[in-house]
Write a structure and sequence with these properties.
This is carbonic anhydrase. The chain is an alpha+beta fold. Helices cover about 35% and strands about 20% of the residues.
Length: about 450
């Protein structure tokens, strides 16, 4: 190579060396930055494993000379966020680098901490165990409730069977006594030779119901095998009467049901009611729902020229009728019937007070068991003596207050209240502490008073 050419090539070689030197410096700087980032990530990851939550910001300026560089430029480095945990400070890297500021804040490692994951898993397992325990307890409670419901049904069925047994035993005794009376000639009955009709004819002759059918105006014995059992509470209570038997749907659908609350302004135009009662013997019956006294020949009343014969009277406690929202201790319902089958009921309200001698034959002879009855031939019962001296009343059209809740009943509720002694009241409520139907909707009915 010629000298001029060599002189021309020398600057090019110098430029080439400077170029590679510049590339080396730039590469070294990039490498330094990468190493710093990696170091920061490693330190952050290590500290997150230890669960440290506080961040310490430390600023440090240091000027370090490069002892091995001999004339190389000294770089000022500012290092931030270096943690002092017993480790030596890392020496400054050779070469010039931009000051690096690092602020470390405790952040959970991506994907969650291993310690936290273990704790969460343990907590989830505990929750699963608690849920399983609660489910087991709920299953036990459900099983207990099911057993309780089954026990209640069995108890109800047992009570129904007991009532049926008592009714059959009562019928057996009545039939046996009736047969004795027929054989002795005390009673005459027309009994045919047809064996299929003989029992019905004997029951009719003895005044017993035919196949569980009550006499007109009477409550049906609770233990009768041909009657659906109803009561004043529970699943056979008043709110369910209409569902117990199709013929009883009027108990819910009727528009003139009884009893009612007698409140508000009342009209006039009261029909004339005359009393034609007379002394009579009684038969006191426990019919499974109340104490009822059947009247042999006790006279009756006359309404608008129509005569209604007194059939029986029975009791409810508390009184079913209310006056201005208030019930009395008891009520006696005197049930009458006309020749064309229409019913009329007179309600006599009673409160505890003086002894009631008129009702003494009834309260002294109350049978303790359903379907039992006691004859009181010398009762001398006269309904005139049961009614108060002042016989003003409320009058409205209503229904029977027990199934089948038949409507078209003429109701007269006397305003003045009679008495019964606490002893008489207690004797009755020991048998029937509560046997009152709730008051029913008036539905715009006319209520009159005198």
């Amino acid at each position: 190579m010629s000298e001029p050419a060599a002189e021309a090539a020398a600057p090019a070689a110098d430029n080439k060396k400077k170029k590679w030197l510049m590339i080396g410096l730039i590469g070294g700087g990039v490498l330094l930055i990468v190493l710093s980032v990696v170091l920061a990530v490693v330190l952050s990851h290590g500290k997150s494993k230890k669960g440290q939550s506080k961040a310490h910001d430390t600023e440090q300026q240091a000027e370090e000379g490069d002892a091995e560089g001999g004339g190389e430029e000294h770089a000022d480095a500012e290092e931030h966020g270096k943690k002092e945990e017993g480790h030596e400070k890392p020496k400054a890297e050779h070469g010039s680098a931009e000051p690096e500021h690092t602020t470390e804040t405790h952040k959970p490692a991506e994907g969650g901490k291993p310690g936290d994951e273990a704790a969460l898993k343990a907590e989830a397992d505990q929750l699963k165990q608690d849920i399983a325990k609660l489910q087991h307890e709920m299953d036990q409670q459900t099983e207990m409730l099911t057993l309780s419901d089954e026990a209640a049904k069995l108890k109800s069925e047992i009570n129904a069977l007991k009532e049926k047994k008592a009714s059959l035993e009562g019928d057996k005794q009545k039939l046996a006594e009736g047969v004795k009376q027929i054989r002795s000639g005390e009673k005459k009955c027309a009994i045919s030779g047809n064996p299929d009709k003989r029992l019905d004819e004997l029951r009719a002759c003895l005044g017993m119901s035919q196949h569980g059918e009550s006499k007109p105006g009477e409550h049906k014995p609770a233990g009768d095998s041909h009657e659906v059992h109803w009561s004043y509470n529970g699943e056979n209570g008043p709110e369910f009467w209409a569902k117990l038997k199709p013929e009883w749907k009027v108990c819910a659908e009727g528009r003139t049901q009884s009893p009612i609350n007698l409140v508000g302004k009342f009209g006039s135009g009261v029909p004339a009611l005359s009393y034609e009662y007379k002394s009579s013997a009684l038969t006191v019956v426990n019919n499974g729902h109340t104490i009822q006294a059947n009247v042999a020949e006790g006279g009756g009343v006359v309404l608008d020229g129509k005569r209604y014969k007194l059939l029986q009277f029975h009791f409810h406690t508390p009184s079913e009728e209310q006056i201005n929202g208030r019930a009395n201790d008891m009520v006696a319902h005197l049930v009458h019937k006309s020749e064309d089958g229409k019913l009329l009921v007179i309600g006599v309200l009673l409160n505890r007070g003086k002894d009631n001698p008129v009702l003494k034959p009834v309260f002294d002879n109350m049978p303790g068991k359903a379907s039992e009855e006691k004859a009181v031939p010398n009762a001398g019962f006269d309904a005139n003596r049961l009614l108060p001296a002042s016989r003003n009343y409320f009058h409205y059209d209503g229904s029977l207050t027990t199934p089948p809740c038949s409507e078209g009943v003429k109701w007269f509720v006397l305003k003045n209240v009679g008495n019964i002694s606490p002893k008489q009241y207690d004797a009755y409520t020991q048998l029937y502490p509560y046997n009152a139907r709730p008051v029913q909707a008036v539905n715009g009915r006319a209520i009159v008073e005198n």
